[in-house]
Q: What sequence folds into this?
């Protein structure tokens, strides 16, 4: 999965955690640098829970990562205007294109895999090394995460 924002609904977060705990390999690609204040910080508590559940999370640092894409079992894909956040799922009007043609799914998967190879994997160790400033911003973002 790739998205510029990750502030998910409770249902999405819990489904991803459950899937990972059941042995499904999940990779999430997010931008290293956010384009809105506090969005990256707002995602960190969710990311920490994903990591604890076995999800692999990556920060793309070759520019702003703005793709909204998903590939499932190398056979189904989607590209979308929807971000993986509450605003896209419950407030905004979004559009998603489902991909069933293998060549299209493969093209999206190849792009995402290439981006993951150049991205930095987020680890529990790297989360523990966050600065006091980052942790403070995360606390503030948590107060307004419903608006992000």
A:
């Amino acid at each position: 999965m790739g998205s510029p924002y990750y502030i998910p609904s409770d249902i999405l977060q819990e489904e991803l955690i459950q899937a990972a705990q059941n042995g499904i390999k999940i990779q999430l690609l997010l931008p290293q640098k956010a384009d809105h204040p506090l969005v990256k910080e707002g995602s960190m508590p969710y990311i920490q829970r994903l990591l604890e559940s076995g999800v692999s999370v990556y920060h793309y640092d070759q520019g702003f990562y703005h793709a909204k894409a998903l590939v499932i079992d190398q056979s189904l894909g989607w590209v979308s205007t929807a971000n993986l956040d509450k605003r896209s799922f419950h407030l905004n009007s979004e559009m998603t294109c489902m991909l069933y043609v293998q060549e299209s799914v493969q093209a999206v998967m190849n792009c995402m895999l290439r981006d993951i190879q150049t991205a930095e994997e987020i680890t529990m160790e790297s989360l523990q090394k966050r600065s006091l400033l980052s942790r403070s911003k995360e606390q503030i973002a948590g107060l307004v995460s419903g608006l992000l």
In short: The chain has six helices and eight strands. The mean pLDDT is 89.
